[in-house]
Amino acid sequence: MTVSEGVPARVTIYEVGPRDGLQNERQTVPTQVKVALVDRLAAAGLPVVEATSFVRPEWVPQLGDAERVMAAIERRSGVHYAALVPNLAGLERAIGAGVDEIAVFGSATETFSRRNLNRSVGEAVEMFAPVTDAARAASVRVRGYVSMAFGDPWEGPVPEGQVAGIARRMADLGLDELSLGDTIGVATPGDVERVLSAVRAAIPDTRLAVHFHDTFGQALANVHAALRLGIDTVDAAVGGLGGCPYAASATGNLATEDVVYLLRGMGIETGIDLGRLVDTAWWISDQFGREPVSSVARALGRPSGATTGAACR
Ligand code: HMG
Ligand code: MG
């Protein structure tokens, strides 16, 4: 199959379901379910799995078992296991647990930064600086996020110059990659072109990724717009899991199986086995006693022989 003109021939899917997906679930998710989810995703061919968060457990109790998750997963060669880390206390825990990659997470807006990190935007960048230095010294890959890069529930639309400014400050930390987050899922393809162009002009040498939540059903169209601008790393969560406990209007992430189906149709390589991924979308949704929200998982249907039964309550 030929690849559509003007888009990358291969795309890396950065799977955030076990972290961004599960962090927002109200029901307690047993550690063994988290471990099985990470292992299933790695077995389905996901090259990077953001497995958990080493944040302050009082802030995100759902992921308070980060060390136990990392200790129990089956480490597959070729798969990168990543985790969110806000500060040196988190980095020490993450390195002790053997992560391959960390992600520091800044915000384009002051309100979300204070609500999510208990810090101003500037204080958060200062908090990340020794973290990124120490991670690099330990040969741990460093990703950064800029949340609220398209809109903020308290501050409204976010000007692209403001996003480019924080992207510059984050990139100056020496990141391997920066992911632009539509935390509350309000962006449309025109916004993607506008914001990506401004950020790329500000940090031409930093590898960019996109991270869309699907509140208004625009996430897949937004990925398509980003591909046309040459973006080759896309964040997604199996089954469309997701949300942010510190932004109530953040709904599920773009579903991994939906983006894999799109990319496959465009002749773009991901290395992911769509069948195994859809099985996993049904399996994790069954743990919560509900159907996957993603169109592709619903269209392909529940795998034969799968049993239902919720493990989380
Ligand atoms: P704080 O309350 O200001 O903490 O939280 P502190 O720095 O004042 O420290 C207080 C105590 O907590 C100290 O202990 C620290 O050691 C301990 P004490 O001295 O009192 O005994 N502590 C920790 N313990 C374990 N692990 C740690 C840790 N840090 C401090 N890492 C903090 C500040 C940044 C820690 C907090 O605000 C936090 O953890 N926030 C994380 C919130 C979060 O995870 N939100 C969801 C992820 S963001 C997201 O979903 C968006 C994204 O998906 C992209 C998008 O969608 O756009 C990434
Ligand atoms: Mg997110």
**Which architecture name does CATH use?**
Alpha-Beta Barrel
Bound ligand species: 3-hydroxy-3-methylglutaryl-coenzyme A, magnesium ion
Task: Domain count, please report it.
Answer: 1
Q: Tell me the overall shape.
A: globular
CATH class: Alpha Beta
Oligomer: single chain
User: What is the CATH topology assignment?
Assistant: TIM Barrel
Task: Summarize the biggest pleated sheet.
Answer: 8 strands, parallel, barrel
Topology order in helix (H) and strand (E) letters: EHHEHEHEHHEEEHEHEHEHHH
Helix content: 25-40%
Rounded to an integer in angstroms, the radius of gyration calculated over CA atoms is 18 Å
Superfamily at the CATH H level?
Answer: Aldolase class I
Strand percent estimate: 15-25%
Low-confidence stretches: none
Structural class: alpha/beta
Task: Write out the strand line-up for the largest beta sheet, numbering strands in chain order.
Answer: 1-2-3-4-5-8-9-10
Give me the count of strands: 10
End-to-end CA span = 45 Å
**Tally of separate helices:** 12
